[in-house]
Design goal:
Helix 3 runs antiparallel to helix 4. Helix content is about 60%, strand content about 10%. It has five helices and two strands; from the N terminus they run ββααααα. It is extended. It is mainly alpha-helical and about 170 residues long. The protein folds into two domains: about 40 residues, no CATH class; about 130 residues, no CATH class.
Length: about 170
C-alpha cells in the first residue's frame, strides 16, 4: 500500500465485500527488522483511573459510577474475547497457524482483566464505606493501603530482579 509493506485486494461473497491484506517481501523484511528491536515500554491510558485519582474534587456517587462503568467496559472486553475463544473451542480459530502466539496474547489479556476486576471490586468495596470523597476520616486507612502497596511493590521488585539476574535494589529509590 502506501509504503509497499502490504497489498490489499477486494473479494466478494455474493454482494458482501471484504478487503484481504497480504504482506509483501518488503513488509516481511521490515517486520523481521522491527521484531529484533527492543519494544517500547507500555503506556497506560486509563480515563477511569484518572477520574479515580481526581475523585476528591467530585462526589462519592460519581466515583462509584466511574468504578461501575469501568466494570461494564471490562465486561464488554471479556465478552468479545469469549467470542474469539469460542471459535478456538469449536476448532475454528481465525488463524490456526498462529495459535501459539495468540495464546500468549490471550493469557496476558486474561491476567490483566483479572487484575483489573480484583482492583475494581476492592475499590468499590472501600469507596462504599466512605460518606464522601474528602480525606477526613480516611487518613489511617489510606496510609495502611499505601504501606501495603509499597510492600507488594518491593516484593515485585525483588522477584523481577531475581528473574532478570540483577542485584538487590538501592533502598533509596522509594
Amino acid at each position: 500500500m502506501a509504503h509497499g509493506l502490504a497489498d490489499a485486494s477486494r473479494e466478494y461473497t455474493g454482494r458482501r465485500g471484504r478487503t484481504v491484506y497480504s504482506i509483501t517481501d518488503a513488509g516481511s523484511n521490515a517486520l523481521t527488522h522491527w521484531l529484533s528491536e527492543r519494544a517500547t515500554p507500555p503506556a497506560t491510558q486509563d480515563e477511569a483511573l484518572l477520574k479515580m485519582l481526581l475523585a476528591d474534587h467530585g462526589a462519592r456517587d460519581q466515583l462509584l459510577t466511574t468504578i461501575r462503568c469501568a466494570m461494564e467496559d471490562l465486561l464488554e472486553v471479556i465478552t468479545g474475547v469469549m467470542d474469539i475463544s469460542a471459535r478456538v473451542a469449536t476448532g475454528e480459530p481465525l488463524f490456526p497457524e498462529r495459535l501459539h502466539v495468540t495464546a500468549l496474547s490471550a493469557r496476558n489479556g486474561i491476567t490483566a482483566g483479572s487484575q483489573r476486576f480484583e482492583f475494581l471490586k476492592w475499590a468499590e468495596d472501600w469507596v462504599r464505606t466512605w460518606e464522601d470523597t474528602k480525606l477526613e476520616g480516611k487518613t489511617e486507612e489510606a496510609i495502611a493501603v499505601l504501606t501495603d502497596s509499597r510492600t507488594k511493590l518491593e516484593d515485585l521488585d525483588r522477584e523481577l530482579r531475581q528473574r532478570l539476574g540483577r542485584g538487590p535494589a538501592d533502598d533509596n529509590h522509594f
